Amino acid sequence: MADRPSSERLRFLFRTDQGRVDRDTWRRGALALLAILAPFLGVWLLLAPYANHDLSKTPLFDPMVLLAYSYLLFFAFVGMLIAISFVNLSAKRFRDLGRPAPLGLASLAPLAIFLDGAARWLQVRIVEVMPHWQVYFFDAAAALLAVWTIYELGVANRASAPE
User: Where in the chain are the domains?
Assistant: First the structure.
């Protein structure tokens, strides 16, 4: 059986932004968070079509709509916990690289991803006010910040800053 991280190690990695981590530790931690998020995202992608409730076509109470919105609340909570864990982990890596304001830099990609998700969710509900092409700006910002964060923290071979 593979070595499982201790509860103290998990608490250090994900529950506080204090400390430093190296590139390999950041990659393993980020992949673990992604592995936790992936099944929740998959279930949401299956339920998302039921969140578009048209009263002219379906009754007021539709069990699948209730399930979709109930799951959306749960998924949003899980997503926020994972995002907080990611920010804490990334702040440690930015600090290790000697970057100023590591918590602010670590928050950029999750914020852009949440804004992108909100824009995608909102756009289909206000299509007469927000055309679909406007969502692409949110997509681009989220993708650029995610790629930059992954490169900066998990790929670039930079030396750690002295303590």
Answer: 20-155
